[in-house]
Amino acid sequence: MSWLQLRLDCDRPAAEGLEDQLLFAGALSVTLEDRGDEPLLEPGVGETPLWQAVRITGLFPADTDMEPVLAALPASSQPRVEILEDRDWSREWMQHYRPMRFGERLWICPSWQDPPEPNAINLLLDPGLAFGTGTHPTTAMCLRALEKRIREGFDVVDYGCGSGILGIAALRLGAGRLLAVDNDPQALTATRDNAGRNAIDAELVEVELPDAAPVGAWTGRADLVVANILAGPLASLADTLTAFLKPGGQLLLAGLLESQAQALIDHYADRLGLEPVEQEEEWVCLGGARPT
Predict the structure, then answer these.
(1) Rounded-to-integer distance, Cα 265 and Cα 246, Å
(2) pLDDT over threshold 90, residue 83
(3) What pTM did the predictor assign?
(4) Which of 67, 64, 35 is nearest to 52 (CA)?
(5) How would residue 143 be classed by pLDDT, with cut points 50, 70 and 90?
(6) Distances in whole angstroms, Cα of residue 52 to Cα of each of 12, 13, 141, 172, 259
């Protein structure tokens, strides 16, 4: 089956009205994307961020009469219609997801491909309902940092676990037990599924919501805590994250921009010292240890 794809260019003030106009005209879906390579930083509470220059794409059934739709649109939006052939998008996506190496020993591999180094530490991961594939710089930095820091038998907390990629990598690197925490039930499901896919003993993994009673039992127990979230939550969770650490326990924080790093270092200063341990593009990973 084919579809008609209508694309428009506009500035931010016009975007909402044009989006509503396409939906009213019968668009099955409308997507907004950046037209000017403008980064969107962490929004404030209640804010809906949008780029200054926006591209809007509406998807219509192939038999839609597009003439009245186009006639109602402003010429300044430069509307253009394309035929979009139906494709097997799951297979299309699979063609572009390849094994990735992090550090000296760790590979993240899609389950449908053979690991390029069978004798390396290979983590099988199929992206699904939750964030975390290794392709984003923040995840990549955490994986490299874990590869350097994990020691045999470590107790590890992955806070904001998403797909479980960081915690499961820690186990594959030699950690003894894992507490994976997320406020999204889909993330907990994805973490359990990915742990099973990697033949991780279920008794070694606790997957919990933040307020679950078993989470409290990890106070003062962790050799390493990793949290790849955003700068705002990392600041508000400072007491929670550091409370997991035993004396000498290590903390890794990611999901923040270089411009946000110093403020977070200052915020944690009375708990433990943090410093940049990895940087990729504009993203920074901070690390530190609880005083002994």
Answers:
(1) 20
(2) no
(3) 0.68
(4) 35
(5) very high
(6) 5, 8, 30, 44, 21
